[in-house]
């Protein structure tokens, strides 16, 4: 068949060109079937045509609405004819010339288009924010992993010299008391606790600091208890709990990890790719500033988790750690001080208590702990 080729259409002819949009219609007379067909516009009506049905709605009686919730369909209602349900998924229909040329429809289309656009904007914004947080999370997690990698690759001498420098710093700032009785208590408890640690050969030195403020802290190879801490704690389980927490910091190399993380990604990366002597210097230099430094919440929780495992494995009742925490909180409340600002930090004591209580709830064996009466 030959096709007739006329002159190119004029611009206004294009505008008036009749477009069709696939749509579906439903009417009780069609039974359970939905008629699939096309919508076209004439000058005054919207026409739906299918094999099963034909429907004309005068444009001035036409109302448009979008489905609710997940229903993304566009419905065409006629007030006088509520039994018909006519809808399309083709939102391009709103751009049809019929809509821009009819005031009644234009107002409705603008409202729907505006709302749809707004929803899209909100979704895009939300997606962007989510992406940003995910990216930030990945970067910080990646940094943490890199730092861990660097720290694990460092020769033990780095930690040793770090410990030695930091010890001098502590001795400069605090009076260290010689109390053989308290030292013996710590030594014996540690011998017991060590049985629950992954590396049972870790040796540490204990020191008692001459201050009333209850606290404990650690640097590589050394654990410090204040006199105030012994005044606060009564049972051997509480002292063992505190000791276990400090051992968590030491075993996880938290001080070294903090120092390296402080230096930023460039230093961490350069340590990975070999300039290790620079890193050692940096670590030892930084160690002068680490005494009394505050640990991140993550490190505190990590130390608590480790402590819990050591205690349980060594058959020491881990409730001692919870009781220590409760006593510290009481002390903080009573004295209106935050112990975290004094020595090593223990952020949000209540949060830590809550986490440990949940550990206790999920602990299978809640009895049969070793009696620590002789300690
Ligand atoms: Zn801590």
Automatic annotation (TrEMBL):
The keyword Acyltransferase does not apply. The chain crosses the membrane at residues 122-143. One of its GO terms (biological process) is proteolysis involved in protein catabolic process. Binds 1 zinc ion per subunit. This is Peptidase M48 Ste24p. Residues 195-358 form the Peptidase M48 domain. The keyword Transcription does not apply. Belongs to the peptidase M48 family. PANTHER family: METALLOENDOPEPTIDASE OMA1, METALLOENDOPEPTIDASE OMA1, MITOCHONDRIAL. GO terms for molecular function: metal ion binding; metalloendopeptidase activity. Its cofactor is Zn(2+). Keywords: Hydrolase, Membrane, Metal-binding, Metalloprotease, Protease, Transmembrane, Transmembrane helix, Zinc. CDD domains: M48C_Oma1_like. One of its GO terms (cellular component) is membrane.
